[in-house]
Design goal:
Glyco_hydro_b; 17% strand; alpha/beta; binds 6-O-alpha-D-glucopyranosyl-D-fructose; TIM Barrel; 22 strands; 8-stranded parallel β-sheet; Oligo-1,6-glucosidase, domain 2; binds calcium ion; 552 residues; Immunoglobulin-like; globular; 27% helix; 3 domains
């Protein structure tokens, strides 16, 4: 296995709007991030990934970009950004930005031109099609509800938008569009940034014959028509050969439709495309056939299978990304742990998992203090376009809205977007003014300041686990073997290289369980998420133990 800095990196993801407000307008910003760099560095983080900070009308919080070479007004200026980059580097960390190449904002100059006339030089920067029988060109549904086609009166044609109508899809078939994106990438690399997380990279090539979808399962529509289109690897290879190969940077692509059948094609080292991808196997584990607003109970054997199969797929050629949540998904302790009776234990157990699997590990802001989902009583307190659109659709469909509110509580992307909880002052120390989105009312109990003081806190456990991972390369590069694959309660695995050998025991339940397999060798307890350490094979509720196996 070839070693690389990005394989060993601990990545910390920042959602700037919700991280820290420095100028009392209730919106997180770049100077706010700079204020907190010592904190981030104190965790042991190597790489910071910031979600989009470019100019944007914020229809989708920065994932709708109107100028790729400038900074969003609310977040600061280019001078602030340059300072951020310098300060990150001064602390021996790296900075990765979010690249959103699949779509721009409808307020981008390209789109403003494109919509003007059918012969405008920018017309083919986007997908324009005539209507069909008085309606849109086909029946494809958008990620954010409604059709993917928006009618534009000026030229009496429709444009494609897989996300909101303010996020028109860029036409990657047009070589000029590709060149524009490569130039933008170079602009940021030449400033000295250390990589890109690439938004919905799986969608840049799609079925451009635009056939009607003949099914109504959204997930299947994605894989059949939107994702992994015929030219996606040709485009990525071109991007790599024209830009990426010239810089010592890291890339991680994300996208719906990336699965075990195609994942290796994105990251195989000999293929020269991306370093890593985020797949959503475990992120959709509690979605029923109707998608994310059709919740089902997730099961541990399925969860383990996702990690096992991806590890198996990438172990010879490629590299994994290990994450349990991000700005698009519920809080990890609420989703995969028990955020009530075993809040602390289960948050620490998830940290143990995150930091002991093979792959680069990503921690989303606030997870290091066990931030939880939020349950606002009114839809008025939600901000996310996806949540609000699906609310409107559910209302129109006559669904019982009390029940729908419960699903929003479980699944809304805003669960991850409430302000970072720094201390117990008003607004959780995020801002001195009313934030753009309400603070989770539990900020009095869950915040950075109180956990700094407590040696037994989730925060200090993250620090300990990060140190432990860094001092044991077996946890980064070493082999992986899962035991008891079908066991519904325990997640047990070994990690080893020529130096060290570890056995990791994780109890994903509210009750005590004894681990009964026989292990050769002497076991030395190295990490335990309970402060009353216990080296027996009994696991208390949500207990996590890492043993070193000696003389095996
Ligand atoms: O959020 C999801 C499920 O709730 C995903 O399906 C998500 O829409 C998908 O992974 C793409 O996400 C990315 O691109 C979107 C943006 O809204 C997300 O925040 C971003 O992470 C469009 O740019
Ligand atoms: Ca601000």
């Amino acid at each position: 296995m070839k070693k690389n800095w990005w394989k060993e990196s601990i990545v910390y993801q920042i959602y700037p709007r919700s991280f820290k407000d420095s100028n009392k307008d209730g919106i997180g910003d770049i100077p706010g991030i700079i204020e907190k760099l010592d904190y981030i560095s104190s965790l042991g983080v190597d790489v910071i990934w910031v979600c989009p900070v470019y100019k944007s009308p914020n229809d989708d919080n920065g994932y709708d970009i109107s100028d790729y070479r400038d900074i969003m007004n609310e977040f600061g200026t280019m001078t602030d950004f340059d300072k951020l980059l310098t300060e990150v580097h001064l602390r021996d960390m790296k900075l990765v930005m979010d690249l959103v190449p699949n779509h721009s904002s409808d307020e981008h100059f390209w789109f403003q031109e494109s919509r003007k006339s059918k012969d405008n030089p920018y017309r083919d920067y986007y997908y324009w099609r005539p209507g069909y029988q008085g309606g849109p060109p086909n029946n494809w549904p958008s990620f954010f509800g409604g059709s993917v086609w928006q009618y534009d009166e000026i030229t009496e044609e429709y444009y494609l938008h897989l996300f909101s109508k303010k996020q028109p899809d860029l036409n990657w078939e047009n070589p000029k569009v590709r060149q524009e994106i490569y130039d933008i990438m170079r602009f940021w690399f030449d400033k000295g940034i250390d990589g890109f997380r690439m938004d919905v990279i799986s969608l840049i090539s799609k079925r451009i014959d635009f056939p009607d979808a003949d099914i109504n399962q959204f997930n299947e529509i994605i894989t059949r028509y939107y994702a992994n289109g015929p030219r996606v690897h040709e485009f990525l290879k071109e991007m790599h050969d024209r830009v990426l190969c010239e810089y010592d940077i890291m890339t991680v692509g994300e996208g719906p439709g990336i699965d075990l059948a195609n994942g290796a094609e994105y990251v195989g080292e000999s293929r020269g495309q991306l370093n890593m991808i985020f797949h959503f196997g475990h992120m959709f584990i509690d979605n029923g056939p109707g998608g994310k607003y059709d919740k089902i109970q997730w099961l541990l054997p399925d969860f383990k299978r996702v990690f096992n199969e991806w590890d198996e797929l990438l172990k010879e050629d490629g590299w994994g990304s290990i994450f349990l949540g991000n700005h698009d998904f519920p809080r990890i302790v609420s989703r995969f742990g028990n955020d009530r009776e075993y809040w602390k234990e289960s948050a620490k157990l998830l940290a143990t998992l995150l930091l002991s699997l093979r792959g680069t590990t990503y921690t989303y802001q606030g997870d290091e203090i066990g931030m939880t989902n939020v349950a606002h009583l009114s839809i008025e307190d939600y901000r996310d376009i996806e949540t609000l659109n699906s609310w409107k659709e559910a209302e129109a469909a006559g669904r019982p809205m009390d029940d729908f509110l419960k699903i929003v509580h479980l699944n809304s992307r805003d669960n991850a977007r409430t302000p970072m909880q720094w201390d117990d002052s008003t607004y959780g120390g995020f801002s001195l003014e009313q934030p753009w989105i309400k603070v989770n009312p539990n900020y009095n109990n869950i915040n950075v300041a109180s956990q700094e003081e407590d040696p037994d806190s989730i925060l200090n456990y993250y620090r300990k686990m990060i140190r432990f991972r860094k001092s044991n390369p077996a946890l980064v590069y070493g082999d992986y073997k899962c035991h008891l694959k079908e066991d519904p309660n325990l997640f047990v695995y070994e990690r080893w290289d020529d130096q060290k050998h570890f056995l990791i025991l994780l109890n994903f339940t509210d009750h005590e369980i004894e681990y009964q397999e026989e292990i050769k060798g002497r076991l030395e307890l190295k990490i335990n998420n309970y402060n009353t350490r216990n080296k027996s094979m009994w696991l208390r509720p949500w207990e996590a133990k890492i043993f070193e196996v000696i003389n095996s």
